[in-house]
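Hey, can you fold this one?
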Amino acid sequence: MTRSILARASAVAVLAIAVFAGPASAHVLVDSVRPLGDGSVDIRFAFNHGCSGGEATTRLIVTLPRNVTYLRSEPPSGWSATVESSVVTFSGPAIPNEDEAAFGITALVTAEPGTAVLLPTIQECGTTARYEWTGVTNDAEEPAPRFIATAATATAPPARPVAADSGPGTMQLALVAAGFVAVAALATGTLSRRRMRR
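Sure. Predicted structure:
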């Protein structure tokens, strides 16, 4: 029963991501995000086109945001992947225009459910042509691949600690003490004047 529920939840998460990402024929996109059961997720990028003019794809450069921690990658057959800081670079033999290709990154995602996680990507074709899939909005001319975080695909960030009330500070205590001294001095002076009048 539990396995069935988890399977359905994963399927719903993957479907929601695919609908949000947009048509595969027009973008490099996040095709699916699959929970692996240990807190990490498998993020699949896909495309089936080259650059303008039909040039074949030779490199894909993915920049991971701060809330996505890289664990490992899975390039397509014949390709390799290198990682430098938060940038994952896939490269290999040319993938012809209109041929489908998929790339995988396993990562830990920290985000509140409902948050859009953007993964800016550059698609290069040889040394002269490229697409910069980095647009922030989904309707940009070259939108960044993205997915919507869910409870199944992301870990919520830790809650910020609430500062404890440490009571009155040193300055406050000093002011209160000074007030008591002033009142005491005033009372003493008044009493002394009364005695002198007698």
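The chain is about 25% helix and 35% strand. Let me know if you want another pass with a different chain boundary.
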